[in-house]
Design goal:
Layout lengths: L3 H9 L24 E5 L2 E4 L4 E4 L14 H11 L10 H13 L5 E5 L2 H16 L3 E5 L16 H5 L10 H4 L2 E4 L4 H11 L3 E6 L2 E2 L5 E2 L2 H14 L2 E5 L11 H6 L5 E4 L10 E5 L1 H4 L18 H14 L4 H21 L6 E5 L2 E5 L8 H6 L2 H13 L2 E2 L8 E2 L6 H16 L2
Helix pairs in contact: 2-11, 3-11, 7-8, 12-15
The structure holds ligand KE4.
Ligand KE4 binds next to helix 4 and helix 5.
């Protein structure tokens, strides 16, 4: 009997490239038919066939409270009754800006946009506008959205599909993007020594979630901070994924390192389109209408989307939220590792807050090269076995996973049991 997912996928491909509106959803790396979700509630999603899954993707990070949280849904419906968008300032945007400035270390001014890509694209334009320099440094395997300058040896879907450097980006643009090795402090120092006067900014995922899950070493980030300060380059922490996901002050709070600019997305929209960039006042005052660096957006700071984000953040910033979330994620990881190792399968995991990575290798990777040593075929086999057992992990060996506050004992125990069954017949 043909699954409704298959029917919908065939139909979608008639009008949408690859049948999806974002490539990593297409199951290209893992094979098989993408699941078309009909609804989500708490830790669960249901596909077009009515099959239920425990969701460990959470829309790639935003749903830190779980699906359809009553307070978030109410905030959206209440706000929508007063109008969806004005293209004019609203008070709720000030509420969000005040919350972010208070919560994120070093954020003196912040601008809301509608996606993480807009946030990172603008942060780098700001770095170039503030310094008058052309070059940016990014790191292989890190993904910062799909702006031209950043689709050079990128992670996430670009890596998943095997084309980390996108077609369509002219050499004149890609040439100003210097791609270095993640966690290689010496190479970074050597690069600054050679071309420091040309470097406008450095952008990094402090915990890389787009080549699976690879935390920066403290030495790497400390070196980065010192070099940017010494050479007058703008340090951008891309916390679109880690912001309000790994801790109440994001990854920069865990490391105790203050960037010049921070980009945010995902959780701050609670499932609706919100991104943000912000940081040092002297840098942010270069953005229009105050300064010469232009940026704009019809739906920037959209009040309905911001209402969803505020309802989410109010829960996230409550005392003890991340202690509880981090314990759940660690328990998930420990149960997966225990199930695999009991059967002699090389498997490891790592996590922070509600974000985790699983790897078919003995130890968690500390670099892009080590990520690439992981057994992708084993991951794909695990992914499909888990799907059959009603567990939905990211359909790529190069993506992080996510646990929400809605995941409870029942879901974590069910996942542990399913993992034992999967590895029992490995
Ligand atoms: P968006 O434009 O997708 O809102 O954000 C881009 C972005 C920027 N920075 C980081 C660290 C990110 O992880 C992302 C987007 N993440 C991917 C998942 N790894 C989004 C999922 C997708 O592309 O469909």
């Amino acid at each position: 009997m043909t699954s409704k997912n298959e029917t919908l996928f065939a139909r979608a491909q008639q009008t949408i490239p690859g049948g999806v509106n974002s490539p990593v959803r297409a199951f290209r790396a893992v094979g098989g038919t993408p699941r078309f979700f009909a609804r989500g509630e708490g830790p669960y999603v249901w596909d077009a066939d009515g099959k239920r899954y425990i969701d460990y993707v959470g829309s790639w990070g935003p749903l830190v409270l779980g699906h359809a949280h009553p307070e978030v849904v109410k905030a959206v419906t209440d706000r929508a009754k007063d109008g969806l968008s004005f293209g004019a300032p609203t008070e709720i945007e000030i509420e969000m800006a005040e919350l972010l400035v208070k919560a994120v270390p070093g954020m003196e001014l912040v601008r809301l946009v509608s996606s993480g890509t807009e946030a990172t694209m603008t942060a780098l334009r700001l770095a170039r506008g503030f310094t008058g320099r052309p070059k940016i440094i990014k790191f292989e395997g890190c993904y910062h959205g799909h702006a031209d300058s950043l689709l050079v040896k990128a992670g996430s879907g670009a890596l998943t599909l095997g084309n980390p450097s996108s077609a369509g980006v002219p050499p004149e643009i890609a040439g100003h993007t210097v791609v270095l090795s993640f966690n290689d402090a010496q190479q970074l120092a050597d690069t600054f020594a050679a071309i420091g006067s040309e470097i406008a900014g450095v952008i990094v995922e402090p915990i890389a979630g787009n080549m699976n899950y690879v935390p920066a070493t403290p030495e790497f980030l400390r070196t980065m901070r010192e070099l940017c300060t010494k050479h007058g380059a703008v340090l951008v922490f891309d916390e679109v994924m880690t912001g309000f996901r790994v801790g109440r002050e994001g990854a920069q709070g865990l490391y105790g390192i203050r960037p010049d600019l921070t980009t945010l997305g995902k959780v701050i929209g609670g499932g609706m389109p919100v991104g943000a960039f912000g940081g040092r006042r002297d840098v942010m005052e270069k953005i229009a209408p105050l300064g010469p660096v232009y940026q704009a957006g019809t739906l920037s700071g959209n009040p309905v989307a911001v209402a969803a984000g505020l309802a989410t953040l109010k829960r996230v910033l409550a005392p003890g939220f991340f202690d509880a979330l981090g314990a759940k994620t660690k328990r998930l990881c420990d149960s997966l590792v225990a199930a695999a190792r009991a059967k002699g399968v090389p498997f490891s995991a790592a996590s922070a807050g509600g974000m985790f990575g699983v790897f078919f290798r003995e130890t968690p990777p500390a670099s892009y090269a080590q990520v690439m040593e992981s057994d992708k075929d084993a991951f794909n086999r695990f992914f499909h076995a888990a799907l059959t057992k009603g567990l939905y992990f990211a359909p790529s060996a190069f993506e992080a996973g996510f646990v929400s506050a809605a995941h409870g004992d029942a879901e974590l125990d069910a996942t542990a049991r399913a993992a034992q069954e999967i590895f029992a017949t490995w």
